[in-house]
C-alpha cells in the first residue's frame, strides 16, 4: 500500500453543478478525468461542449478539456482504470425532511462492483453533502456486499464541497478551505491521497488553499455547520427586517449594515430579503433538523431540555418558509382582493448568476398568486425556460390549480411591467437594478413596486411617484 498515488486517474460520478465543475477544472489542470452521469442527454450536451445549466465561464473550460483530458460517458465501465473517484450526485430531501441518499448508494455500489476484482488500493471520495454517519454506512455496505478491506484494498474519504452556483469556477479555483475526512485509524491513507491531489491541483494553478484533515464524521458535519450558519444569518437578517417595518423611521438595510460591520459578525448574508432558496440551504437545514431529532439524547435533568432541541434550526426553516409571502402582504394591504389583478414577477432563479430555480422564493409567490386567481407575468434573464417547464408540468398534473393562460412567460422585463397592477422584484439580477422609476411609471397600469431584494433607492422612487414597498423599511408610503 503506497502513501499516495504516483499517477492520479480520476473519476467523477454525477455531472451536475458540483461534479461537472470539479471534473472540468481537474482536467483543465492536466489530470486525466472520466466523468460519469446516468443522464444521457446531459452527457450528449457536454460532448457537444455545452454546459447543461447556466454557470458563467464553465463552458470555456469544458471547451478546452473535453475529449482531451476530460472524457464523459454514462458507462460506469470506464471507471475501471481510475484509482480515485469523487461522488457528486444529488442528496435531496424526502417529503418529511430526511435525507435521501439513494443516488449516493447507487453510485458507490456501481463503483464497488467495477473495482471488485482488483486488489490495488483505490479511493472513493464522498463529495455530495451527507449527514454524519452516512459515509460509515456506505463503507459497511461496500464491505458487506463485496468484501472490501478498508485501508487495504479500498479507501473512503469525505471531501465536502462549498462552491456557490454562479461562482462555481471561481470558488473551485480559490476555495476558502479544503476539508478532507477519513478513518484516521484504519485508513489514514485516504486523507493523504485526497489532500495530495488537491495540493498538486493548487500547486499547478499557483493558488494557496488551506487543507484541513479530520475524521469522517467531522468532515460531514462541517458542511452542515457551514450551511446552517449561513441560513441562520439570512433568517436573522429577515427577522430584523420584519421587526424594522413595525418601528417608525427604521430601515433594515442601515441597521444590518451597521450590525455587520462588527468583524465578529460580518456583512455577508446579512441583507433583508424574501428568504433563501436553491438546491442546498433549504434541504440541508431540513435534513439537519430531521437528523438532530434522531440523535437527540434523553435529557437527564429538566434544565437541559432545550440544549438538545433543534429549536434554532426549526426557527430558521420556519421563518424562511414564511418570508416569501411577505411580498403578498404588501399587495393585500394595497388591494385587499387580488383576483384578476395583473402582478409582475421579476426573477425566477433562486439568485442571480444561475438558471437554477430549485426552491426559488418566486415559485412559492407565483403559486400563491395563481391560487388567488391573479394573472402573473414573469421574467428571468436565464431561468425562464426552467420555470416554464416547471409550471406547465405542475399545472398538467393538477399540482398547481390554475389555467395555463394565467401565467405569462415574458422574454423581457418590459413586457412584465407593461399594464401590471404591481411588480415584485424577487431576484436581484443587475438587469433589474438598472430599471429606472420612470419606466415603472410609464408602463405600469398602477405603479406599485415591491422591492423584495432591496435593490432600489426608495427615495428616488417615491419622489418620482412610484409607490414602493421595500422589505425591512418602515413608514415609506
Ligand atoms: P445536481 O442535481 O445538479 O447533479 C447531480 C447529478 O448526478 C445529476 O446530473 C444526475 O443525473 C446525476 N446522478 C444521479 N444519480 C446518479 C448515479 N447513480 N450515477 C451517476 N450520476 C448520477 O446536484 P449538484 O447541485 O451538483 O449537487 C451535488 C451534491 O453536492 C449534493 O449533495 C449537493 O447538496 C452538494 N452541493 C451542491 C452545491 C451547489 O451549489 N449545487 C454546493 C455544494 C454542495
Helix content: 40-55%
Q: Find the count of extended strands (DSSP E, 2+ residues).
A: 14
**Strand fraction band?**
5-15%
User: Distance between termini?
Assistant: 72 Å
Low-confidence stretches at least 5 residues in length (pLDDT < 50)? none
The secondary structure category is: alpha/beta
Gross geometry: globular
User: Tell me about the biggest sheet?
Assistant: 8 strands, mixed
Strand order of the largest sheet: 3-2-1-4-5-6-7-8
| Total of helices | 19
Radius of gyration: 24 Å
Q: List bound small molecules.
A: nicotinamide-adenine-dinucleotide
How confident overall, as mean pLDDT? Answer: 95
Describe the structure.
With 477 residues, this protein is of the alpha/beta class. The strands form two sheets. The protein has an eight-stranded mixed beta sheet, with helices on both faces. β13, α19 and β14 form a beta-alpha-beta unit. α1 crosses α3 and α8 runs antiparallel to α9. The longest helix has 29 residues. The structure holds nicotinamide-adenine-dinucleotide. The site of nicotinamide-adenine-dinucleotide (NAD) has 26 residues, from α1 and α4. The site of nicotinamide-adenine-dinucleotide has 26 residues, from α1 and α4.
Summarize the structure.
With 477 residues, the chain is an alpha/beta fold.
What attributes characterize this protein structure?
477 residues; alpha/beta; eight-stranded mixed sheet; six-stranded parallel sheet; 19 helices; binds nicotinamide-adenine-dinucleotide
